Amino acid sequence: AQKITQTQPGMFVQEKEAVTLDCTYDTSDPSYGLFWYKQPSSGEMIFLIYQGSYDQQNATEGRYSLNFQKARKSANLVISASQLGDSAMYFCAMSPQIYNQGGKLIFGQGTELSVKP
Amino acid sequence: DGGITQSPKYLFRKEGQNVTLSCEQNLNHDAMYWYRQDPGQGLRLIYYSQIVNDFQKGDIAEGYSVSREKKESFPLTVTSAQKNPTAFYLCASKMERQGHQPQHFGDGTRLSIL
Lengths: 117, 114
Fold this sequence. Notes:
The structure holds two protein chains of two kinds. By secondary structure, chain A is mainly β. In chain A, about 0% of the residues lie in helices and about 50% in strands. Chain A has no helices and twelve strands. In chain A, strands 2, 5, 6, 10, 11 and 12 form a six-stranded mixed sheet that branches. In chain A, strands 3-9-8-7 form a four-stranded antiparallel sheet, with no helix packed on it. Chain A has a two-stranded antiparallel ribbon with strand order 1-4. In chain A, strand 7 and strand 8 form a beta hairpin. Chain A is globular, with a radius of gyration of 14 Å. By secondary structure, chain B is mostly beta strands. Chain B is about 0% helix and about 50% strand. Chain B contains no helices and eleven strands. Chains A and B meet through strand 5, strand 6 and strand 10 of A and strand 4, strand 5, strand 9 and strand 10 of B.
């Protein structure tokens, strides 16, 4: 079965420090995509970063990087230099094989990150 | 600016009533999606559409219906058959039907029972 697991319901980090949010996935598809989204308390879902299953290098977008370990089926999000505005829910998601799935996303349960001043 | 507009932001439903949530996008995206989010939970797929006049059920389609008469619009109707409709509903779109592009989301509609 295709599944995303986020084992940290909540995390705290001190402002300006780095934090890692865990994500493991389960799929037998050779081609898949992995995404991280941020959901502030207002509710909108903000796309942060994407990693393709065939990408050789870990994805980076500004302060966000994705630690992709294919053999372990993990796709952890690293946020460097945390800011107060980073406090939010973070969701890991996967899009299964390219064909016959309509590009739908499978989401994890989320991790609530709180940044302390 | 291009984006996805969901309306209304808040919606209340009476017993036995059908209600329709609006989702409009001006991104010229082919694919559109409806998700449901319950408190403290991740998103679950209700319906999706890859092309005009075609749509498929997601994981929790019972009690919901959709239409896709125009590329820009993908309204969701919560019918009286949906016994537990209180949730946050998110609409999303993606540029192409297949492939691994990110989905872009609207701001959501919060539905509650009166």
